Predict the 3D structure of the following.
Amino acid sequence: DSALTQVVTGAVAGNTGGFVSTSFNATQRGYNTSCSAVVRTPAALPTGARVFVGLISATPANANDAGGNHIGFKYSTVAGDTGVSTGWRATTRNGTTNTIAAANVGASANIAINTTYTLKMRVDSTNNTVYMSVNGGTEDAVTATLPAAATNLGFASLIITSDTNADTFNLGRFYCEQN
């Protein structure tokens, strides 16, 4: 386990808690980046909130689609969002079109309270594929709407509230390597 930081949003729609790159040029998909992030759910799951963990070209938006170019994991309890209230979903965007997986990554279980999750992704740029897994489980191969190989990306581990409740999440390390 890694050390965790509890982050809390304000009780205003659009308020965030977490960590986001100060610049969005830390890596590119073409660098065959591999990342691992650790997060932990609180004693009560957030309501009306979105969590994004991954690589992105701008601060994630408070929307079903995190925006920009991105490769990441999404968890949402916002009514109407794809995959609402279930588990970690793969989300990718090529700057124009967003794809959110219809099922939890690697057939992982639904999100539970007080649970630590290790979220991993590794890029195979030669084959235009990102492999994603939760807690060392089965890897899902993601090929739809990936950012272009030379698109600059930073990182985000962020919870965004979309209602008037303060929401809490626990964030640990976010570590990436490039080949």
Remarks:
- The CA atoms of residues 35 and 176 lie 4 Å apart.
- The chain is about 0% helix and 45% strand.
